[in-house]
Design a protein that fits this description.
The structure is a homotetramer of 363-residue chains. Chain A is of the alpha+beta class. Chain A has eight helices and 18 strands. Chains A, B, C, D: Keywords: Amino-acid biosynthesis, Aromatic amino acid biosynthesis, FAD, Flavoprotein, FMN, Lyase, NADP.
Chain lengths: 363, 363, 363, 363
């Protein structure tokens, strides 16, 4: 299949460009009987929405979603759910400055070589604007998962050089950074303000956690839960790395340190990040992703034009100095979509399985 | 589809357990006319084969592959290629010691909960033995890619705490570690010898590079080349993290540092690892993966049995003290399979595209 | 994947119910550079549109399609094409009469058992209204295929007991029945008028032909071209049978009669319908489909309600006395979508194939 | 995906040519805990096996299947099941006579144009020999379905001009034709004997019935149960047509005649063939398929060679005068595979659905 569909049983297909008339998505495979309204989707859309603080782009988008199908009398019918978000703030600015050149670290050059032409307005399809539909679709998965006792939450674990150790979920959604430590916020604010003065951008690290996931999700040996999470999280704009549990720290670990021992009371640690052999263990699923610094910065850079001639690129327009700041709801959505798909996949083959062995939690 | 098929157009489906009669694979979608013999596959199989040095498991497997179909008069026919590897060294040892308990950090617990029963002999399907077929299938992709001027090579970039900076491709295949720096080998040998005395295991980091990849491979916005690489590499046993290009280092980078500027002579750097917007840029594709320490170690550990009762686990048998040592050919195979699949996918939709803009290499 | 996506590389995903706010579709995998406007889609939509003659339902739907994405400056970009059709004529009639009972030969009973609830307004998702999006998507495929010299056309080959032998393509689109023989039209008109007086409905047979299809399309041994055509055509509402070439007539044929002999000038016959071994031969692709009589008729019928109690069903509302009358554009669309998908699939694997053997036409 | 995999959740991937070393298949997605041995597969393989009567090819193949994986201690583990059948009777005859020409009505011409080369020995991949693996895989589905109370059975409903009305299931497997009427057998024998004297071949019609299928199987609007059956049955060699229920007879039917009315005691008829709106109704699933006459006949025919020159084709070797005679077990297997896949698909999305409305049988 072409590249704009995610999932096997719970599938999300999206379309739409940054400055086209609208974004659209079709969510197929949602179980019937789930109470659903556009408000359920709007909540997460508003968390991702630009222009909510001085640390994100000032582009104004209401991101109002309309449910076109698949919901009847307030509940899902089991038929595909059509979603529509009209683009409202498409500045009719002149793009002639960039239409024939390639902005460094953007997809301009690769889209040009792949398709021979491209919608250069605001990055077209390659714009992070597209992630609005991921969040909308993810909200459907989140609501279904919540009814199964599964909660997917994320936070910023690092902004540029500043590490943000997890303190508590309280207040994560009450600050512009999704920081799990309120005391860190002034430092983050100061860093961002300096960054703007430097006319530069910076990367970030996001951590997503799913609690309440039952053991058994994941389809080895290729469609492992961790492999599908890596795929889904890496598919987010600007992501350059994905870790499950200890991730790259496990390179320097000893086996005696990494292995999560089991006791009748539960697992004694969670280096695995909740996945063993590609299947969920019943522990929290923990994944982290690295986002690169925003490519659009006002400091001029060298590049070439479509004729291969040398040019200087000066990026104007409205951009996030750190794309990672708005990435938390997107990362949550992607994890929720993967878990939803695998919940359905696991059910299909193993509906008859009965296990008497107690399910372990984490100590 | 169920989880044992990889790819969309160039598909690899595998089956087989560690101690079953055989491993089998079907490679579908290989273009016709490719000269192919079992020797082409054997070369990489021998690189992955156990028992070739004192630093890997002493299990003896010839890993002789038989081509069952899809090749006629020495060339591929375009029909599916069946591959068979008989398991020869299945020690008829007594598994009663582990059949009813879960080895920490293994898939025993999760397979038990997912399927309700499991083939406990040597880990059954969850054993790294399965990766032999990945290597065999990957060798087919490698041979086709090579004819297109695409070369996929890997090396060990870190063993436990020891970083191994890349020096040269020469000799990478001449040492047990796939070290790109021959001078490092004594240090690696000494570390491994001490590790065995400690009855412990350790993790490793592998880096894979593809040279000669044309721009255009990758199908946004989900089936990005980097997303599919993350999926394929994370699906390898024991992998806990995947990076593209700068990876997690990009978190602390500034935009001015990360963005790879373009000049008529080429890209000035490759922080992106050869992928922009999910599409290959023409630069080398660079991916790294983190492998956790081997779970099977002779130091006893705490666990539970199928009744939830506390037990002590003493792992016996023949195991790799560092699974990463044999992982390089596997990682190469997975990258080759993803590139092969995307070469075919890119062709299908964009066969008519003509681009006059020169393709940039890397400075 | 869930059931609302068609195709492997050129995919069409649709959503929308008969009386919901809108129908929506996402067409993914369309090659870039194809000139496309909503007018290109409207032409076929108008051919399918209800209310254009007294022999079809009087429901009034403009079926105006909006292109939401994937087209920039008049040509396709290679990114997914979003399509939207608002439902305008949703009679706010009272459905309480049918909400709790099952209309015979409709999907009411099966949707109820599958999903536990259903959108009963006008059949919801099971309504033929959904086929509007098939026609819109098919028009994109038709336009691309036409540029390759491939033309997909259909006609009505039988209405109830009246067989309509093919005379000529001229005028097929100038009559309400898509009759290939203008002289038959009065007989068809008279039959339909009597049918309405009888308060009954009738079946029909449609034949679709693709000219100019090159040899090589189709992916044995499962995804044969004829198998995929059977799937796509059988997926149209009310279709109960599909034939390729001689179809069921081949049961009574002798081998000497059925086999299409080859001469340097071309094939001497086309019993095969243009497909040999599941691959196109270069001859015209010929497929026929049987459509059952409309289930909604005003003659009362026996049924049960959701409690299993006996009820009498009297269907009201606006219905086609013969669904086959409007089916020709739908059948053309489905064949075009399958050919388009297989054109891309064939390319991907066999781009390097060179054949010197001349391509045969048909004598 | 490439064309040699069938199914979405219960997938069957096959490889192997008529005269290659072996046929191989991987069945993925089989639920764990199903008792399975090679004997379960051998039963149906023997029903399809050639050389069991004078009315089929005299090629001798033991068709002995080996289970390579996915079964442990007599039951399935949920891991993929590898199947192997060695080809034993590959006559080392000289194929030079046909290697450079195209046998009429065979896949020679189309494989040549698609792939540029082909394994010409006995038709290579396009040979019906491949169907042995369909039967083996289908036997696994049949055994699982049987445990759910679902029984899939087929019979020959027409041989050339001779219609065979269904009398009873008794004895269907006791005659070479799978005739449901023992009294017809002498007539069938006489017809076949004359056919051989005429050096000709003939077509046949097979009907397959599934009893005990619960309502709800099928995934509209594309992956309808009837659409997937049409795909699977049309993918069998030599099949030119597929019908569900009344099939092409419904063209001339009136709505009052076709609609299957419902009563509290059950459906009063089954014109629909057990599928409404693409979903099983709980009635028997009834499908018929048309098989063309064998293409290989000893009566010479006109054709061309790879240079486009005119040639005469005289087919030698061992062939079935009516491929339909051995097709019944194959058709059963394909229906079983589709039902199995849809049973898993239905479960996944609708596991929570509770319906109190009684399930109707057929009167």
């Amino acid at each position: 299949m072409s590249g704009n569909t995610l999932g096997t049983l719970f599938t999300v297909t999206t379309a739409g460009e940054s400055h086209g008339p609208a974004l659209v998505a079709i969510v197929d495979g949602c179980p019937p009987g789930l109470p659903l309204s556009s408000e359920d989707l709007q909540r997460d859309l508003d968390r991702r929405k630009p222009g909510t603080s001085r640390h994100t782009t000032q582009r104004q988008e209401a991101d109002e979603v309309e449910i076109l199908s698949g919901v009847f009398e307030g509940v899902t019918t089991g038929c595909p759910i059509g979603l529509l978000i009209r683009n409202t703030d498409q500045k009719s600015k002149d793009y002639s400055a960039i239409k024939d050149l390639f902005r460094p670290a953007h997809a301009d050059y690769t889209y040009h070589h792949k398709y021979g032409l491209r919608d250069y307005r605001g990055g077209g399809r390659s714009s992070a604007r597209e992630t609005a539909m991921r969040v909308a679709a993810g909200a459907i998965a989140k609501k279904y998962l919540a009814a199964q006792g599964i909660q997917v939450r994320g936070y910023m674990s690092q902004l540029g050089p500043i590490e943000i150790p997890f303190k508590s979920w309280d207040g994560v959604n009450d600050n512009a950074f999704f920081s799990p430590d309120p005391d860190k916020i002034p430092e983050l604010e100061a860093y961002m303000d300096q960054l703007r003065r430097d006319q530069d951008s910076v990367g970030a690290k996001i951590t997503v956690v799913a609690d309440g996931v039952p053991p058994g999700l994941g389809e080895p040996i290729f469609d492992r839960l961790d492999a599908e999470l890596a795929y889904a999280l890496m598919s987010i704009n600007a992501v350059k790395g994905v870790e499950i549990g200890a991730g790259f720290a496990s390179v320097a670990q000893r086996g005696t340190e990494h292995r999560d021992e089991l006791t009748p009371e539960g697992f004694v640690s969670n280096q695995a990040g909740g996945v063993l052999g590609g299947i969920s263990s019943g522990q929290p699923i923990v994944a982290s992703l690295a986002l690169k610094p925003t490519s659009s910065i006002t400091t001029p850079g060298r590049s070439i034009d479509v004729n291969g001639e040398s040019v200087d690129v000066i990026t104007k327009g409205r951009h996030d100095p750190c794309v990672g700041i708005r990435a938390t709801p997107i990362a949550e959505a992607m994890m929720a979509l993967v878990l939803m798909d695998h919940l359905l996949r696991h059910r299909s083959q193993n509906a008859d399985v009965k296990v008497t062995t107690p399910v372990l939690g984490q100590l």
